[in-house]
Amino acid sequence: MLKCLRCGASCGDDEPIWRCPDCGGHLDHITEKLLSISPEEIKRGPLSMWRYSKTMPVRSPEKAVTMGEGLTPLIPVELDGVKPLVKMDFLCPTGSYKDRGISVLVSRLRELGITSLIEDSSGNAGAAMAAYCTAGGLNCSVYVPDYTSAGKCVQIEAYGAELIRVPGTREDTTDAAMAAARETYYGSHNWSPWFVEGVKTFAYEIWEQLGWTAPDHLVLPLGQGSLVLGAYRALSELRDMGLIDHIPKIHGVQSANCAPLARAYESGLDVPENITKAETVAEGISSATPLRGAEVLEAVKRSRGSIVAVDEKPIVEGIFALASRGIYVEPTSAVVVPGISKLMESGAISKGETTVVFLSGSGLKATDKILELRRKIK
Ligand SMILES: [Zn+2]
């Protein structure tokens, strides 16, 4: 079932709608019956995120559009005197975690008979959409802001998608895509009720990798908030199934130059604060008006987590701190490095607690930007 987050209307999930037919609000996928999975069953499943397919809204998982996404390593890394576990999700097939959500989204849309769609993205989701549409036999046009890294644009076009660069802000890109989508299907990962159903699998994996237990904290890059929403969804499902006894504290990390959710969290607001954003190296989380901001704030609050904002210089230092440990991620992912330091300083996270930080995108996508940053530092 799909439920509108604005007016509460519900409708069946067997139509390829992407927003509420009554009020235009966001739709959320609701699982009507209690889910049921067991470690034994999961261990017998495919060696990809599709081992959790019983928790996904895809009718025929055996026909899914998949390239083996998920099951990324979880490794300990020493950072600034603390030793979190790092979820290496930039190792998914197109170089970002978006593959999880897009694999489910494209699989479900193909089941619903969609053959052509429009997506808009700051880069990574567009690359994932281009790849999975190609793999699944769908046509795809991707709208990106014209400041998007050359690497991501080349990648989108290499998969065979049509690439449209839009001058202006990330929000201008969405407007252009929505206008164009009147003629075809708007497959936006930010609007789709199915995207988060794939993203959530990273939290199931962490549970499996920790020996079927939940960590104490998750530290996630935060823009639109799909990682926060996905984590909260998976962890709530695990709790409801009686498979974990607590929900970890979920902490979001934003760039201070674009921090509508961190500001709202600090001021105790239930909705994102209106902000004027400044440029940030963390382009993947540069979302001034997160579409599901209220839900993200609620999920963080319910998990008893927090949202912090970090400055540009420490983000850049974070890229090279990770690289010096052999981990090459894009600038957006590096926000978690100053993020975890801030959370330790404030006492939100204590030494000895099990903390997982999430690395979302590969540095290979942003080589042009990283080169520029290295030149500035030297
Ligand atoms: Zn509605």
From TrEMBL:
Its cofactor is pyridoxal 5'-phosphate. One of its GO terms (biological process) is L-serine catabolic process. Gene3D superfamilies: 3.40.50.1100. Keywords: Lyase, Pyridoxal phosphate. GO terms for molecular function: L-serine ammonia-lyase activity; pyridoxal phosphate binding; threonine deaminase activity. Residues 65-361 form the Tryptophan synthase beta chain-like PALP domain. This is Threonine synthase.
